[in-house]
Automatic annotation (TrEMBL), chain A:
<dbReference type="Pfam" id="PF13715">
    <property type="entry name" value="CarbopepD_reg_2"/>
</dbReference>
<dbReference type="InterPro" id="IPR012910">
    <property type="entry name" value="Plug_dom"/>
</dbReference>
<dbReference type="InterPro" id="IPR036942">
    <property type="entry name" value="Beta-barrel_TonB_sf"/>
</dbReference>
<dbReference type="Pfam" id="PF07715">
    <property type="entry name" value="Plug"/>
</dbReference>
<keyword id="KW-0813">Transport</keyword>
<protein>
    <submittedName>
        <fullName>SusC/RagA family TonB-linked outer membrane protein</fullName>
    </submittedName>
</protein>
<dbReference type="InterPro" id="IPR037066">
    <property type="entry name" value="Plug_dom_sf"/>
</dbReference>
<keyword id="KW-0732">Signal</keyword>
<dbReference type="InterPro" id="IPR008969">
    <property type="entry name" value="CarboxyPept-like_regulatory"/>
</dbReference>
UniProtKB/TrEMBL annotation, chain B:
<dbReference type="Pfam" id="PF14322">
    <property type="entry name" value="SusD-like_3"/>
</dbReference>
<feature type="domain" description="RagB/SusD">
    <location>
        <begin position="343"/>
        <end position="473"/>
    </location>
</feature>
<keyword id="KW-0998">Cell outer membrane</keyword>
<keyword id="KW-0732">Signal</keyword>
<feature type="compositionally biased region" description="Polar residues">
    <location>
        <begin position="73"/>
        <end position="83"/>
    </location>
</feature>
<keyword id="KW-0472">Membrane</keyword>
<feature type="region of interest" description="Disordered">
    <location>
        <begin position="73"/>
        <end position="92"/>
    </location>
</feature>
<dbReference type="Pfam" id="PF07980">
    <property type="entry name" value="SusD_RagB"/>
</dbReference>
<dbReference type="InterPro" id="IPR012944">
    <property type="entry name" value="SusD_RagB_dom"/>
</dbReference>
Amino acid sequence: MKCKISFLLFLGLFSFSLSAQETKTITGTITDTRNVPLPGAELKVVDKDTYTVTDFDGNFSLEASVGDQIRITYLGFQSQTFSVTNDDVYTLALQDQTSELDEVVVVGYGNQKRSDITGAIVSVDSEEITKQPATTAIQSVQGKVAGVNIIANDAPGSTPTVLMRGLGTAEGGRSPLYIVDGQPLSDIRSINPNDIESIDFLKGASYANIYGIRAANGVILITTKRGKSGKPVFSFESYYGAKTILNQVKMANADQYIQYFNEESAANDGFLLQENQRYDTDWYDELLQTGLINNNSFSVSGASDNIDYFLSYNLFEEKGILDGQKFRRGTIRSNNTYHLFNDNFRIIQNLNIAYTNETPKPFGAFSSAYRQSPLVPVRYDNGLFGQSFVNEATGIVTFESEPGQRVGRLNTHANPVSQVFFEDTYINTTSLQGQIAAELDITDDLMLTTRFAATKFYSTNHSFSDIRAQWLNADPRRSEATFDTERDDPNGDGIVSTEFANNSYSVSRTESYRWNVEGFLTYTKEIDKHNISATVGLSRENYQGGEFTSSQGYDVRPERNLRNFNLRTDRLFDDSVGGDTFQSTNLQSYFGRVEYNYDSRYYLRAVLRRDGTSDFVTGDDNFFGYFPAFSLGWTLTNESFMEDNGVLDNFKLFAGWGKLGNQAIPFNVQSINSGDGSRNTNYVFGPAQSLIIGAALGTPAIPLSWEVTEEFEVGFDFAMLNRRLSGTIDYYNRLNTNAILNVRPILNSEFSSNFFDEAAEISNSGFEFLVNWRDQIGSDFSYNIGVNFSTNENRVQNVKPAYDGAIGGSLGNGRITKRLAEGQPIFAWWMYEADGVWQTQEEIDNNTSLGNARPGHLRYVDQNEDGVIDDRDKKYFGSYIPTYNYGVNIGANYKSFDLSVSGFGVGGNKVYNGLYNTRIGGENISAEQFNKRWTGPGSTNVNPGAERDVEASSYYLEDGSYFRINNITLGYTLPELSNFINSARVYVTLQNPFMFTKYTGFTPELNQNGDPTGTTGIELSAYPNTRSFILGANFKL
Amino acid sequence: MNKTLKHIILTLFAGFMLVNCDNFVEEVEVVDPVAEDSDDFEPVDFLTGVYGMHTDFSYAFSYLGMTDMISDNSDKGSSPTDTGTDKRELDNLNHTTSSVSVRAMWTQWYKTIGRARQAIELTELYEGPTSAPKERIIAEAKFLRALNYFWLVRSFGDVPIQSVDLVERAPVEEVYAYIEQDLTEAIADLPLKNDYASSDIGRATKGSAQGLLAKVYLYQGKWQQAADMANNLITSNQYDLEPDYATIWRESTENGPESVFEIQARGEIPQHGVQQYSQTQGARGPSGWGWGFNSPSQNLEDAFNAEGDAIRRDATIIFAGETLWDGRVVSTSVENPRYSEKAYSSANAGQSDGDKNIRVLRFAEILLIRAEALNELGQSAAALTPLNRVRSRVNLPAITTTDQAQLRRAIWKERRLELAMEHDRWFDLIRTGQAKEAMAADGKTFIEGKHELFPIPNDQLVQTPSMRQNPGW
């Protein structure tokens, strides 16, 4: 780089002096090394405004003078410069840049050539990211990186969950560490995908370990775009798309619902519904709309003698499939590099401003739409929202009744449309990220880098609740007058419940900041065949600091722009204010790295990181930890005995070992439990039984340390058949040596609150395969096929005695579905094994059954054959974590057309159909479940009847494997439009057009927040997958 | 290299040196997560926390299942489909090692014992002045600890002594010895009921500890000690029977002359009582105010009728269609035919925090303990005095038999009727060996060698696999 720039500088001066020369027309052809013509290659006369682009056949014609330097650039090829001589015709072949061996990989505090990497690092470039439009770049690479399981969430403004090489922690932080141009990032959503040059996934410990105490969940390095030498490039990218639900479940209609309800009710001696009722609401049709996605990006970049520049603006907007659900993000990025003192000193400046506006809507509406009865109208005739009222005397679903008739409820669920309607929240965020770095070449071999980076984040959440309207809508028999009476303090005690405020309005603000400063020296030297590179440095970081304030008031004006605590319609209620400050964490780190290779054959690499964090200061200096790593490599194809072997172009074996930390762990704090009111630390004494406040000690705090993961990997990179086939195959084995569990005290011990302790090991192991095939047939057609496949075995082992058995996966109805146990995947499914359906009472009487079994209920297996069905009969049924992931990416180019198809899938996992299982009574069911239900002895021995129990069982646990075509893109690059527009490509993209799954719910891709103890893997209030149709165009000027 | 460049380099190196020290990590102030040294609390607060444990919901539901519903005195109640998690199983003697009620009480009692130990230790270590005498605080905590161990040992047999070992189950004799020691020490340091300041009404008294110790002796068949200890209480002149049996579980007699120990509850705001105790047992359905659990059985009603014991029957049972003493009309269409009147709170009927003081020990029981112990000692004639004192209150004819076996039966029956729905029946059935016969009469199958004890909860065994399970489970 350095040499190139100074060379250009020199040439520029030179050519300037010769600019008075006469011009002539030169012509020629630009090809690749296989003599395939390159259409669209750019030729530019250095330091002049003259340039041209090759046509379909790679031919060009250009006005130039003898002595002019002409620079040829073409994406994917190394640029080349030639001098105009007296010849008029030039044929030049550009070197393929796809010799990915020379590609530079960002490895943290430095770069390495791809050919020198001795570990599993996967790089994804900008082209692949922008091909799959999404809010975040991480979602765009789903299915492209072996060993990285990205669980997408199609809700507007959501962040996908990333699991690199499995889930290694139960209670600790699960997010990978994101580093953008050396700056740690809190929220990946603040980065515009169009600004990204490349993403490098540091999967293996021997590379990730340079980030020490925060690297256990993997490290994702993002490099943003910078200006490239050549003429300024203006780039416009724009796309527009529509989103619909991918996999809508057909629910039972009104008649089916009535029949189902009556079967259930009859079994419980309840009232029956009348046939032929007025409404037949399809709640999903009422709830869902077509979402819209729209993105416009603009960037300008280039480089002049002393400065590289890149400036971009992006506006991304998405409307979700719920009414009013929106997410909008704008980003402005400015990346500049100043080359000073003959490029011996460089100042790098990056600035990113991201702001978002969001109006979220409750995902609970999806569950309500599943459960609410089709007999309930969206709105009654009087305009109020329909509710599940039913006249039990007539069996008609209405709130109206004659005297003496009881009006009850079909179920306890909300009207999903009203849930969405009454949610009135908007969230604004602003994120400012700035970085300034300096690189100084002290000698030819020694470089000093220092960086300072800071991020400031603001978020404001405005939430308005129209209490009066919700109160009136909750029961159509209520009147405004009653509400007003309640506001007049009818019992005269001076207290009016906020239940009768007209509305409530709350505003909360969060402000946070982080900064890091680091410096490191890099020494690079080639001595004969010995290549050595060493890095040593230190860094300080301060993060997690910030503050939070919130205020809530009542009876404000309802108009959005007049919502203000000072403009109130009434002052019956007190405001409340709250706030908190977040203690920041200081992180102090030292790192050193030595890389050595002999003749590009034998590689040796050693890394040591020492991290100390203020989160673990407990008196003595046990808050520092060492994280070492080693890796070795051997490139066999560079050995003389492998030369001209005719098959293998590249073959490198590598192996690595390292230690990684996870400091995002929960802490124990001993508290004294005490407080006023009715609680079990208080008691009443004395003649008036006065309430006396007492106290009890909470569980003593056990000091904890960060989780330490040890990882070993071994694998090989290969390329063969003229590099048409290449790939990486590796094996990894990572072990969290001191996984922290949430431990329930032993039942008969003194303390009752749970505590955290280092209590188990969690291992993740598996194979990763990444294979690419690329070929060119004739001059017009080229294609590539990439396949990746990875396996993961997740196990909890060596659990401390009595610490086993933490439960999770609560369905919210008192039933749980997961349990942590030694020898099982982390928080494995744990429930009864369903085995058929009780057909008759006689059958129940003669067999072991659950206490309340009735015909039509599921039968559960008495695993221990003790004649009783209880917790000991619950069985482990694997995990929601897939045991394998795979992706297929196919690309083809024919003349100006390009086509790409990508798909990915997971398998070996199970998901829980919580929507189907969790019924209290009166909920709707899917049409399929209706049709296959038990209706009497002999009807089915698989599916329960309308009257069934609520136990969690394997019946509701379904195969979670799926394969999704997640992108089909067809593009067309227009022939040269004009001298002004250099290149233009239009494309059409189908996102998620097809999903193949046996799962009967909406989506088997159940992200939630990724918490293994929670509802991850359980479909309850989950946002469904969506399908998009996108039209887009890119222009380059 | 020009001057500017030199300057820049120097600045950079200065920056480099700045980041070079460890104490950056220590600049953040860290709060010590150990709260034990807090100055805001004194020992008596932790004692209050021990008493407070007895106001938990488990005493309003799980406890009822393990003491009443399981017995012949009452049924699960409520609607047929509402199983009350495992209450139907308990009612039908189908409970298992994973029955939640059993687990709940096992845990509740041990956690209470834990709090009592903390209160004792914190009091012993406390150096400042205390608002109550240290000895008394410790004695009260010991009484509560003994009470909870007693509930444990009679339910589970051999149980671990928490401060000794969490896994090894101490033999019943050792557990009783531990209880006796706590109670003996408590008796020495606890004031007499009437010696407490009025603001301390509700605390454990010397009489509470004596009464419990008498009962503990009774359970062990230590007849002489039981008779003597009961007599200590009877002759302390602190206690007497309430004249009207119908009022003994009403608010008007709370902490009255008959009260030996009761769990306190306050009905006025700020309310605090055993969570939902009156609600879970309240009438269910039209005009109802509760969940309808723990419904007195036909068997119990028959037992009252057979004795001609209308006073205690009507004071114990709310019948569907009845108009209660406070004027409340119970509809004939409530879900169950009978509800426990002893659980009924007039002022706070269906509220979570009721005003119902739960009578744990009352004078009538002490009289019956003395009667039973004397009879077992062969002093049957002497036994008649305390027995008939209890009977005469409810206008029943005096028992005259001095046949030890007959009198034993009579005393057992008297205990059933006098203490019906007071959470004692099941243990009396076990203790006296009547369980199989009585449960058969109630249509339930009592398995000998198994049902005498509750199972150690499965969750406990998951945590401590080497702990022994009870026979038959």
